[in-house]
Records
---
Amino acid sequence: MKQFISVNDVSNINTLVEKALAYKADPYKDRTLGADKRIGLLFLNPSLRTRLSTQVAAGNLGMEAIVFNVDKEGWALEFEEGAIMSGSSVEHIKDAAPILGSYFDILCIRTFPSLKNREDDYSELYISQFIKYCGVPVISLESATLHPLQSLTDIVTIKEVLSGNAAIKSKPKIVLTWAPHVKALPQCVANSFAQWINAWGEAEFVITHPEDYELSEAFTRGATITTNQDEALKDADFVYVKNWSTFKDYGKIYENDPRWMLTDAKLQLTNNAKVMHCLPVRRNVELSDEILDGPNSIVTQQAGNRVWAAQAVISEILVSSK
Ligand code: CP
């Protein structure tokens, strides 16, 4: 693996998932693989899970991990080619990225979308420029449109649950449901989950959202899409809850009906579904306390698995770079 930006960088999803689960069973089995190597984690936006799980994963492989909160501690970066830098940006990515590439063996970056201009965000300018100029393998810690480490974790968690639950049929029904939120959020997690579940191909996959909340077909093609949440939830084995803002009329909140929040009553429609969320979650807005604190929630298991997904990806890149 030369980089990890989307599912397209993965030759075999199941093999990578097995690798992550093998690290969960034996975290230090490759403790010297990354000896004398350094990984840089660059954050242009906040994080809890991604930052810490990736640091832990790198440490398990014997790598030194250095975190740089670029948004708070670094110079304001310019990403546009040919920009006349007379505004607030101080340093061009063309100058910064090769320097970072000389300090690190692997670079990871988190760059959220602006949600102001769809074409700009969906061009993935920031991470593309970074890849173009840094000269070392890049891992996405969530970009403008995708969150691949989260999606790999999600499939790791689904497979882990499946392996210990004979009550779920071999091709589970997985439902991605929109949920209300007070802020306009990126489509990244939903796009990425859809892209990975479709590529994985081992589930009946349904996406449900209010009217006008369609995601990009580039990611959802292959899924059944409905605006009837109750119908979607019927017999579901997994329910993945996530808010996203509108894609067509980009970055807007059209709908905040609390009836879209998953509750125990709605869960009755499912096959005793396990409930997933990438976190952070707004309690009693996106997801009810009764679900999050109840027996069907696997959000803590899911967040814990972020370490093993990150470790599998870093390991693949280290092996390919040898
Ligand atoms: N799910 C996720 O990416 O969490 P953080 O934003 O805390 O990293």
---
Amino acid sequence: ASSISIRSLHKAFSSKMTALDGVDLDVQPGEFFTLLGPSGCGKTTLLRIIAGLEQPDRGSISIGGRLLDGVPPHQRSVNTVFQSYALFPNRNVRDNIGFGLQMQRVKRQIIQQRVQAMAEITKVDDLLDRNPEQLSGGQKQRVALARALINEPDVLLLDEPLSALDAGLRGQLQVELQRLQRRLGMTFVFVTHDQQEAMVMSHRMAVLHEGQVQQVGTPQVIYEQPKTLFVARFMGHQNIFAIQQRNEDEIVADFGVLKGRFAAGSHILLREEALSLKAGVVEGHNRLTARVEECLYRGGSTEYRVLCGNARLTVRSHNLGQALFASGQDVTIDVAPEAVAILP
Ligand code: ADP
Ligand code: MG
């Protein structure tokens, strides 16, 4: 496994279209590192530059301490798995997986053994004689993965490899891919626009926005302590409010007043899963009175949209047998300290 360091990377496709705008990143050896961001933020461009398929305008990439300026793709120990499988249609699964080793003129017998071993790891060993058109989407992606792993690259790049799959299969492959990475200990750079997927899979992740890295950290840090409004919204937080006034021991925002000594910042975030509701008006420390507007029952939890002061808040409540609240009902929101994060 190798480290990757990316320094001051710039790439513009035209004077108006800057795809990467000064990207600095360090990926550790053996890390499952994810690039997360909306469509068009520069994820694919960054992967293509790491692979050597695209030249940066400025900046540099090193893998395992080796500077890759001008090094062509096939001389980098990097393989890529794309969203659109890109298998050779006229070769069977066995030959697709073994292709990289054939190119390196590895002995036939050794290729056979390694294809068999890799096919077992990726669970396609019963499909070796089929052609790609006889495979499902999930099977094709397993074959693409086996083909990319067979020559043991230092780094595997994965560009939204699961996004063409339906939800159930996708969840299953997320688990398998994560297990595989932990087992092989190889450095993975994984791209997705899905924040849930990024959190499930990654050791660390970088959130990209318009060609810039907004924040790098573990899933927990990115979710619990977002540094920017963009990151907070992209991670799915709904209760984000401008801080109108901050006194020594309280904060004022559209929803009302919260007591406590809070860090300085522009916005306050209330985590919907850490708020709790009580029926009626209940006085107490950091309790806000509100009225339920909408209830979205989701089985294990219910999402309540409530009107609180001049703000609309979302509260996610676990359904553990207690009575549900109804729209129109007066409630009290209990704001626990751990529900609050301040955006700097
Ligand atoms: P992502 O993978 O995050 O969706 P991309 O890296 O594909 O983003 O694209 C980043 C930006 O660069 C987009 O606005 C896209 O339109 C533009 N772009 C990407 N590739 C090219 C290209 N070959 N020519 C012109 N513009 C491009
Ligand atoms: Mg892309």
